[in-house]
Model the fold of this input.
Amino acid sequence: MVDVRRSYWLSALETMRFVTGKRVSWSELHKWKSKPGNNDDWRLVSNWATALGHPMTYEEARDAFQQFYWGRDGKAGNVKKEKLIVTPRQIEKWARRFELNLFTGRTRDEFSYTFDRWPATRYFRTVVTMNDVARKKPYPDGLLKILGKRDPATALYIGDNVDDALPAREARVPFMAILPPGTFEYRKRAARFRELGALALLPGIRALNDWLPSA
Done:
């Protein structure tokens, strides 16, 4: 629902350049992003920097990343560059017919900053952030918390990362992947999503309407 290319992704790239002194590229970022567990950008930075010969703990990576994401020394952070790409009207239409929930890799503070003032947030019955589960993505804890005792087959999870597909598979929740044409390594990512059981590859979230049952 959010374009994070200029917020989370850019922050990860700038953090890597800062801590390693290397001109790491967007293509390298995408390759690391596609590895399980790296939906968490702090984990991504820790793993990537360590692989490049700059050992970093998870906590060190988190602290370095936050300077670029939230900002420092009076300079606005990249969080200001986030863009919501789904209209409140569309969320409202879905909410009239289905129960909507969110399982996100964001912290509660990150979620609140972007979504608390968004009119459509009220349509989500449950929001599970990384602070609300003992094990974050790619573990299925968030999905299981939302499901409760309900049949997983009655739900549908939409995501754009391997760390979305993996918890869906573990929780036995049907999954659809958002994968726009022109995405870096499109064919490779498409094959991986299909391997993990994706029912469909959507060019964007609004394409979900083509798959939902008629009203």
